[in-house]
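Anyone up for a design puzzle?
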């Protein structure tokens, strides 16, 4: 489930599970004569009692099935919004076929964060973002900007609940997760039933409320798009700034940054997180 691949001299990607053999992230790259599509997917950890459609994990299946369905939608000439909906329609059909009539509660339906960056030949970047992946760009002059600043409002709610449990002496991650599970399931049901979902979900009840932006990518610019698990090097661990993280990836490679992340996590105590470590994925692209 782990992957590191140098696609070309301009593109490098990595995807690494926090647990050996299990990775709910996925990075996909699509090339055509008109543009390059960089797709970063961060599947949300399941809050179900079991997997329903794939023994390797329903969330793992979901992110890979979406990327597989996105390819034909892109080839058909659909724009990012239409292609996302077309791919989800394909994935949803496959999901319920694989379920084989099983009654699957909505809190068990898989969801994911999605950042899709389309680099067009005219030097523009077209961002289509759902959820909390992070995209940084370093300009030729060395400045680093966050192209999609976003704060997940649910994260503050979750951190407050975790702080309450820790204050009550509940430091064991498994026990803490069990106490949080009703809240997490209610949130997952809400996300799957939203009329304008802000996350990639299986059965959207309306159009995805993606954050969309078009920005120039001057020659010499470097782009780093990543899941929040990879961005832990900056937030919450504080081992890097956005600028130093991008420099580390550019100079030492994505594997060096990942090694720094995993070494830090291996030595740290349980903190303000449901998960001690997270799947971590990134793609580095040079304009």
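Challenge accepted. My sequence:
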């Amino acid at each position: 489930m782990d992957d590191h691949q140098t696609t070309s001299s301009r593109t490098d990607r990595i995807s690494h599970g926090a647990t050996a053999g299990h990775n709910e992230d996925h990075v996909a790259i699509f090339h055509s004569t008109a543009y390059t599509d960089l797709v970063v997917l961060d599947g949300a950890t399941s809050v179900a009692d079991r997997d329903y459609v794939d023994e390797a994990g329903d969330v793992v299946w979901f992110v890979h099935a979406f990327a597989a369905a996105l390819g034909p939608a892109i080839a058909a000439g659909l724009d990012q919004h239409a292609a996302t909906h077309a791919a989800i329609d394909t994935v949803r059909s496959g999901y319920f076929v694989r379920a084989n009539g099983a009654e699957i509660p909505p809190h068990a339906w898989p969801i994911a964060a999605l950042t899709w960056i389309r680099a067009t030949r005219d030097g523009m970047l077209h961002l289509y973002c759902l959820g909390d992946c992070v995209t940084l760009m370093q300009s030729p002059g060395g400045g680093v900007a966050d192209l999609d600043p976003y704060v997940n409002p649910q994260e503050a709610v979750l951190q407050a609940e975790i702080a309450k449990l820790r204050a009550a002496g509940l430091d064991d991650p498994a026990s803490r997760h069990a106490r949080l599970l009703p809240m997490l399931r209610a949130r997952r049901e809400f996300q799957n039933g939203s009329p304008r979902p802000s996350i990639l979900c299986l059965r959207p009840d309306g159009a995805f409320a993606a954050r969309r932006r078009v920005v120039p990518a001057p020659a010499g610019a470097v782009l780093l798009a990543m899941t929040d698990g990879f961005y832990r090097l900056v937030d919450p661990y504080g081992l890097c700034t956005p600028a130093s993280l991008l420099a580390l990836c550019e100079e030492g490679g994505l594997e060096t940054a990942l090694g720094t992340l995993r070494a830090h996590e291996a030595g740290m105590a349980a903190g303000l997180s449901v998960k001690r470590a997270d799947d971590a994925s990134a793609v580095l692209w040079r304009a």
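A detail worth pointing out: Residues 52 and 99 are 6 Å apart (CA to CA).
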